[in-house]
Amino acid sequence: MRRTAAAASAVTVLVPLLLAGASTASAATTGSLTVRTLDRSGKAVYAQVAVYNTKTYDFRYIEGNKKTSLPNGTYELASSFVGGNSEDAIVGGHSVKVSGATTTTFDGRKGRAVKVSLSPAPGSGYDHTVTAAVCTVDNSPATMSISADAGDLYAIPNSSRAYELSYGTTYEPHSTTGGDFWMASATHSRGVPSGVSAALKKSGLTNLKVSARSGPDSGQAQFSFSYSSGGGDDCSMQTNGLWFQRDLPNSFTAHIPAGSWDVSQQSHDFVYSGHHTYAAGKTTSLSIGHAVWGPGGKLPYTWYHQLYFGDDNPFADPKFTAGGVLASGTLKLTHAGKTLYQHNYSPSTQLDPHPRIPGSGWYTLTETAHRSGLPSGSLSTSSSLSLHFYADAGKNQQVRDYISRFWPEGLNSRNQAAAGSTTTVDLGMQRLGTDDSTIGRLSDGVKSVRAWYTTDNGTHWKATAAKLSGGKWTIAVHNPASGPGRVGLRSTVTDTHGDSSTTTVYNAYAVS
């Protein structure tokens, strides 16, 4: 039987300290609270209780069935726990006024069944679980949730409009290698009802069709789908979440409530999409782990005579551009033959330098990076980026330049091309903004593109013509006649103002 109780975050417990000789008036302001947590048979069971003082905003977790010293006042409480039979799951929330020695109870015998299903049902071959969360409407941290097998979940009713109940259902395939996932949820506001029996419609779901490749990452991966309410129904964030493992490469569809979702994949490395909004009834294709992981498209910018490098990622997935957390490397800035800044960084380093620049002129920023700790044969193991640009130190604006994004066409799910074939590689010209309206952006255009590829890890580079057609730059790579092998890619883009960038990715894709 699976049980997933709400995890208690790290919270500093602020317990009043009574010193010898403290006044009687001060002592009188301190009471105690005992929260009895009883299962469906009336037996006391272990539980954590979220406790929130509505006046002082003090928040802590306390243990059920134990007396805890607390300042007198009004508190919002929430708790979730598993019964002594290790099957029944109970969740509830209510308020209590602490004045002296106070006792209150979460009694599982008063719980009413929470029954949630999907209509029409996905069919056989699924594990069917139900989740419920009790929250306060003022979005205080007095929130608890729990999951159980269908038929084993109970919520303790509460007529107070200060509380609400979110509930949901998840269907996960029995198979650990294939199959789709289904999840739906809803919220009952104005109190916790005396039981729930809901059949949620599939029409309210969005469909995320995921193709997760191997190569840049491999092995077993953890997939996470995290929901954001956007400041509305925060309680639904407790019931909308999907986590599971699959071996790479893998394909599946997650049928989940419409709204804002962040999708991530973690194996040896980690990538995530950031929150995007998906509409009900729509199908969206998501590609994860496509070759080539390389430098992202964010450019430096000047700010009051400083040059900000930003948080550009040297191993950005072409679609899930946030992540690539295994990067180590070197960053170097030069001007007029002098090194203005140089720093070696590791995966644990948060790198966002902003050295002062002496004045307006031409600068060169060079970054070399590699990913360590990966299995033999991994792709996108090393990258480099060299930017040569003119910076106006007196203006707050992004520099000109373009950063190539390589996208090989026709690769299989392991990012392999057939030996002896020719691979067309798209060159995306990236110059992403800063999302800061106070930083100006300059117009620019591509003047020329040169490109090379290597089949011997950089010992020799072969030039290949870059062609422009329909607004898209492409190159043709002639793959080795026999495999296995790997291909590295490099391009230099020069803009119409003389700025230039060179992007290189080693072991960009494989040849089999």
Number of strands: 39
Gyration radius from CA atoms, angstroms: 28 Å
Look at the structure and give the mean pLDDT: 92
Strand content: over 45%
Low-confidence stretches: 1-27
Helix content: under 10%
**Broad structural category:** mainly beta
Label the overall shape. elongated
Terminal residue distance: 44 Å
Mind describing the biggest β-sheet?
9 strands, mixed
How many individual helices? 1
Fold and architecture overview:
With 512 residues, the chain is mostly beta strands. 1% of the residues lie in helices and 52% in strands. Strands 27, 28, 29, 30, 32, 34, 35, 38 and 39 form a nine-stranded mixed sheet that branches. Strands 1-11-10-13-14-19-16-23 form an eight-stranded mixed sheet, with no helix packed on it. It is elongated. It starts with a strand and ends with a strand.
